[in-house]
Amino acid sequence: MNWSEDTRLDADEDTGASATDERMPMTQASSAEPRGELFLGDTGTLPFDARRALCQLLAGPSIDAQRHGALWPALLRNEAAIRQVLCELFLELVLDREGGVAFTRQADTAELESPILLRSAPLTFIESVLLLFLRQQLAEADTRGERAVVDEAQLVEALSVYEKNVSTDRAGFARRVMTAIGKMRDNQLLSRLRGSEERYEVSPVLKLLFSAEDVQALVMAYRGLREGEVALD
Questions:
Q1: Sheet strands (E) in 53-203
Q2: What is the C-alpha separation between 187 and 147, in angstroms, rounded?
Q3: Neighbours of 185 (CB within 10 A)
Q4: What CATH number has the domain bearing residue 176?
Q5: At 157, is the secondary structure helix, strand, or coil?
Q6: Nearest Cα to Cα of residue 129 among 105, 99, 151, 156
Q7: In terms of DSSP bridges, do strands 190-192 and 149-151 run parallel, antiparallel, or are they unpaired?
Q8: Residue 6 lies in a domain
Q9: Tens of pLDDT, residue by residue, the chain (233 residues)
C-alpha cells in the first residue's frame, strides 16, 4: 500500500461517470478497446474515468467505495485492464469488492531485480500499536455487522498502557499519540465523521493489510512489551 499525502481525486464528489461511459458496454473486455485521444499524442486505451482510478491507485494510499464514489465503479468496470497496466510496473492490485477498498503493492518478483516504485515509511512503536488496535476494532465491528467507529479519547486510553515503553514524559507521549493518529488520517485509515472533530471510522483496508494470523502474532508480541519494562523509541 502506498503511504503518501492525501491525493484523493474525487473524494466526496457527487459527479457520475463521464459521457464516454454512457456509450461504453459494462464489460471488462471492452475496457481495452480504443476510446479516442484524450489529449494531443494520446496513445492510451483506457477510458478517462479508468485513468483517474489508476492515478489514484498510484498516488495512494487507496480507493474507497464510500470516499471515491466515481472512481470505485470505474475501477470495477476496468479491473482487468488496470491490473495489466500495474503489472507492467511490477505492481499488484489488491481489491476487496465486499469491503469496497483497493490499493496497490509491490508484486512479489522473487529473485527478479525489479524496480521499487512505491514509497514505504517505517512505523514507530506507537504507530504500530495504534494500527493493531484499529485492526482489532475493525474485527469486532465486523462480527456485529457494524462500521468500526472510534474516538480520540478511546485511542489515547488504549495506547496509554504502553506509555512506560516509550522513553519520554507524559506530555511527550501524548504528542506521539496524536502524531500517530494524524498519520492514520493522512493515509485514510481513519476518516473523520461528519459533524465530529474527534470521532473516526476505521478503513476496511486494514483487513487486507493485516490477516487474522498477523494480528494474533502482533498481539502476543505487544502483550509481552506491555507487561514488561522494555523501553522503545
A1: 63-64, 91-96, 101-106, 149-151, 190-192, 199-202
A2: 18
A3: 14
A4: 1.10.10
A5: helix
A6: 156
A7: unpaired
A8: no
A9: 665 444 445 554 444 444 444 434 444 444 444 457 899 999 999 999 999 999 999 988 889 898 899 999 999 999 999 999 999 999 999 999 988 999 999 888 888 888 887 767 788 888 888 988 999 898 899 889 888 999 999 999 999 888 877 767 888 888 899 999 999 998 889 999 988 888 999 988 888 877 667 777 777 766 766 665 444 45
Q: Are 78 and 18 in contact (CB under 8 A)?
A: no
- The 10 Å CB-count burial string (b at 16+, else e) for 61-71 is bbbbbebbbbb
Distance in angstroms (rounded) separating the CA atoms of residues 80 and 170? 51
Containing structural domain, residue 156: 125-227
Q: Are 139 and 93 part of one and the same domain? A: no
The structural domain count of the chain equals 2
Strand 101-106 vs strand 63-64: parallel, antiparallel, or unpaired? antiparallel
